[in-house]
Design goal:
alpha/beta; Aspartate Aminotransferase, domain 1; Aspartate Aminotransferase, domain 2; seven-stranded mixed β-sheet; four-stranded antiparallel β-sheet; 12 helices; about 15% strand; binds pyridoxal-5'-phosphate
């Protein structure tokens, strides 16, 4: 049997044994191999109908009555409670709204305020920021530092334990590195941050919906994440903010809006924060996007995040195996860790001419993305990517690289 036939047969066997295979039917997909769900998740098939109902019946028919009768007003916390089990949180700790960037701002400033409860006192004047972070977190942490009289200090996640001190107020970390797909040790890093008396803020954009996070179990203080990647909420769908229940009374938002007020319709001139995670809200929620997200979350009914993680690792293992078998030595180098404990749900391959290679892949129906300067990024969403897709993606990559070499 040729190598291609062998791996194609293996893909068939893996697909036949896949307990999540049926979930794919719940998405709108075509013959394209879609490996970009770590950037924009695919459309769940029930979303268009639900959005149409929200627009025509709730908005068009009920109009303003929908704030109560269609549950618009309570959507941020209701949908937060739907996301909660996916990230290991008990209800009442997550609110949905705003972008990840805005929630990073709220969380980092609130963490610094918790670390220095006496205004002008406390002496915790450093924010450690993941030096490998998705840029927006770094920009916002830098601004939050300036506003709170702190110094931002970029460190890699591995350097965090050595950089912590009595001066550390907050540490902002990514659970999975957006470029390399490296999974960081959230339990150990959170414990180290706590041992130093500081607060940990985690960005879950690349882990929520792809692997178990265990926010409550590991005592994470604050967390943020987007919903348009592995949670399939749609382009620009609202992000979320987690505030651990025992910290909620001390969560002093830098963006106190009327939606964070204890009595939003009291129209008072003085601010009194709402009880619980609700104080993480700001202004009027983006109802159309939010309710599209709510519908998208239906695909998680009866799905265990542990099963998703097991399939994700099997998919990335199989992709690395197929790339190893098909692509000539030296053409690509994986920058994603081999160890399961250090791998998210993507594989990043460093490759000469990566931008052009990705264009050629997309033309042939294999959609990943390119990250400057030389990385091909492939995301594996276990709910709709199968093993035959993986084998095809590696085969097409080998073809594209072979043709590039001949040219
Ligand atoms: C890790 C990470 N953080 C933050 C963001 C930005 O989120 P937003 O555009 O929702 O503010 C992204 C976007 O891809 C991301 O990957």
């Amino acid at each position: 049997m040729s190598e291609f036939a062998e791996l194609a047969a293996k893909a068939g066997a893996l697909d036949a044994a896949d307990e999540l295979a049926a979930a794919r039917k719940q998405f709108v997909l075509d013959e394209v191999v879609y490996l970009d769900g770590n950037s924009l998740g695919a459309l769940p098939a029930n979303v268009p109908g639900r959005v149409e109902d929200v627009v025509r019946r709730q908005w068009g028919g009920l109009r303003i009555r929908s704030w109560d009768e269609s549950g618009w007003w309570t959507a941020p916390e209701r949908i937060g409670d739907r996301i909660a089990p996916l990230v290991g949180a008990a209800p009442g700790q997550i609110v949905v709204g705003d972008s990840t960037s805005v929630n990073v701002f709220k969380a980092v400033v609130a963490a610094v305020r918790m670390a220095n409860p006496v205004v002008g006192g406390g002496g915790r004047d450093e924010i450690l920021v993941d030096a490998t972070t998705f840029p927006t977190d770094g920009y916002i942490a830098e601004s939050a530092a300036r506003m709170t009289g702190c110094a931002p200090r970029p460190v890699t996640p591995a350097q965090v334990p050595g950089a912590l001190s009595g001066r550390t107020a907050a540490v902002l970390l990514n659970h999975v590195d957006y470029r390399t797909g490296r999974l960081h040790d959230l339990p150990a890093l959170t414990a180290a941050v706590h041992a130093a008396g500081a607060y940990a803020v985690w960005d879950l954009c690349h882990s929520a919906g792809a692997l178990p996070v265990g926010l409550d179990e590991h005592g994470v203080d604050l967390a943020v994440g987007c919903t348009y990647k592995y949670l399939n909420g749609g382009p620009g769908s609202p992000a979320y903010l987690y505030v651990r229940s025992d910290l909620q009374d001390r969560f002093d938002s830098p963006l106190p809006g009327w939606n964070s007020h204890a009595e939003p319709f009291g129209m008072r001139s003085d601010f009194a924060p709402a009880a619980g995670a609700l104080r993480g809200r700001v202004g009027t929620p983006d109802i159309l996007s939010m309710l599209a997200l709510e519908a998208a979350l239906d695909v998680w009914e009866g799905v265990s995040i542990e099963a998703v993680r097991a399939k994700s690792l099997a998919l990335t293992d199989f992709f690395l195996e197929c790339v190893g078998a098909y692509v000539p030595d030296g053409r690509v180098e994986s920058v994603t860790p081999v160890a399961h404990a250090e791998r998210g749900s993507q594989v990043a391959l460093r490759c000469e001419g990566a931008g052009d290679v990705m264009k050629a892949l997309i033309e042939r129906g294999v959609v990943g993305d390119f990250r400057h300067p030389d990385v091909l990024r492939f995301g594996f969403t276990p709910l709709y990517v199968g093993f035959a897709d993986v084998e095809r993606a590696a085969r097409v990559l080998a073809e594209v690289l072979g043709e590039a070499r001949r040219r």
